[in-house]
């Protein structure tokens, strides 16, 4: 039986790689993002190389009704969603008061609100069928307090905790959830952020390696995964308490990013 995966943020980086590796596993794809030419080119590539159905949904996921619009598009396409990859996201960094509030609002809409809304769209059908999965892309930034990445790190902490809560709730239903927490990955992420200095700690890995590790973790129903040994160590060995000391030390580590992006 054919299976369909919806991948958000499929126009570049990690999302495009999820689409490629899922197509190689035989999934039909629905590719969601704003950049239509990139989505259309990827859809053609996937159909050519893997003989799968690949559809494109052009949608700004920061829009308040984004999930409803994607849901309508899925209905119009006659698609049953077996796998949702909530990958679309971006970061903001620097001294909080100097960051554009509109950008941070959009960041929370994409990284958090639409991720939750889309999960609501697909879960009832998955539960009724007794199968399916939701993969949410967090970050190692979500394991700790993130001065100079206050909104981004907090959005990814939400993704990690939300997904593990779902994973727990869904036990025994045939449906599952996985949080993927990448360290630095070689994509356009840091160009969009404005500085590669933000890639603090951990080893830069390729999207290919990241997605392969994520899909292995999904096969094994791991709940969450931090691909790359040094990223895993960073995420788990950094002390969490005392929380104020962690926050103060974090500020020192990220001060170069703050100076580069939001000079005093
Ligand atoms: N690269 C890293 O080091 C790293 C580390 C940890 C976590 N992550 C996470 O990994 C995910 C993917 O990032 P990436 O590294 O692959 O970066 P990327 O190459 O910049 O890709 C980001 C994707 O998100 C989409 N997106 C952003 N804003 C959107 C919006 N308003 N509406 C719809 N789509 C939107 C972009 O599509 P359009 O611009 O075409 O809309 C693009 O496809 C993100 O959630 C990011 O936070 C990345």
The computed structural class is alpha/beta
Order of helices and strands: EHEHEHEHEHEHHEHHH
Give a short account of the largest sheet.
Answer: 7 strands, parallel
* CATH class call: Alpha Beta
What multimeric state do the chains show?
Answer: single chain
- Global geometry: globular
What is the annotated CATH architecture?
3-Layer(aba) Sandwich
How many distinct domains? 1
User: Helical proportion?
Assistant: 40-55%
Average predicted local confidence, pLDDT: 96
Per DSSP E runs of 2 or more residues, the count of β-strands stands at: 7
Write out the distinct hetero groups bound to the structure: NADP nicotinamide-adenine-dinucleotide phosphate
What is the name of the CATH topology?
Rossmann fold
CATH homologous superfamily descriptor = NAD(P)-binding Rossmann-like Domain
Poorly predicted sequence stretches spanning 5 or more consecutive residues:
none
Rounded radius of gyration (Å)? 18 Å
Strand order of the largest sheet: 3-2-1-4-5-6-7
Content of β-strand: 5-15%
Distance between the termini: 58 Å
Tally the helices: what do you get? 10
Description:
The protein has one domain: NAD(P)-binding Rossmann-like Domain (Rossmann fold, 3-Layer(aba) Sandwich), CATH 3.40.50.720. Strands 3-2-1-4-5-6-7 form a seven-stranded parallel beta sheet, sandwiched between helices. It has 264 residues and is α/β, with parallel strands linked by helices. β4, α4 (101-129) and β5 (132-137) form a beta-alpha-beta unit. It is globular. The model has no long low-confidence stretch (mean pLDDT 96). It has ten helices and seven strands. The structure holds NADP nicotinamide-adenine-dinucleotide phosphate (NAP). The site of NADP nicotinamide-adenine-dinucleotide phosphate has 28 residues, from α1, α4 and α6. GO terms for molecular function: oxidoreductase activity. This is Ketoreductase domain-containing protein.
């Amino acid at each position: 039986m054919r299976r369909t995966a919806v991948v958000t943020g499929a126009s570049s980086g990690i999302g495009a790689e999820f689409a490629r590796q899922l197509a190689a596993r035989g999934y039909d794809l629905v590719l969601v993002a704003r950049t239509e030419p990139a989505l259309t080119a990827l859809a053609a590539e996937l159909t050519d190389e893997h003989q799968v159905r690949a559809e494109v949904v052009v949608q700004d996921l920061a829009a308040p009704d984004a999930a409803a619009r994607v849901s309508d598009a899925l209905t119009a396409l006659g698609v049953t969603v077996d796998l949702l990859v909530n990958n679309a996201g971006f970061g903001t960094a620097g001294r909080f008061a100097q960051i554009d509030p509109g950008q941070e609002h959009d960041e929370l809409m994409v990284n958090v609100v639409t991720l939750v809304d889309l999960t609501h769209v697909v879960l009832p059908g998955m539960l009724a069928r007794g199968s399916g999965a939701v993969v949410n892309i967090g970050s190692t930034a979500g394991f700790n307090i993130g001065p100079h990445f206050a909104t981004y790190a907090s959005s990814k902490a939400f993704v990690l905790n939300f997904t593990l809560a779902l994973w727990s709730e869904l036990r025994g239903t045939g449906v599952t959830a996985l949080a993927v927490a990448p360290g630095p990955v070689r994509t356009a992420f840091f160009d969009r952020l404005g500085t590669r200095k933000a890639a603090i700690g951990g080893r830069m890995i390729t999207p290919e390696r990241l997605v392969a590790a994520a899909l292995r973790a999904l096969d094994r129903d791991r709940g969450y995964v931090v691909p790359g040994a040094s990223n895993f160590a960073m995420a788990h060995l950094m002390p969490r308490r005392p929380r104020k000391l962690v926050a103060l030390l974090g500020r020192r580590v990220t001060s170069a990013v703050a100076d580069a992006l939001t000079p005093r």
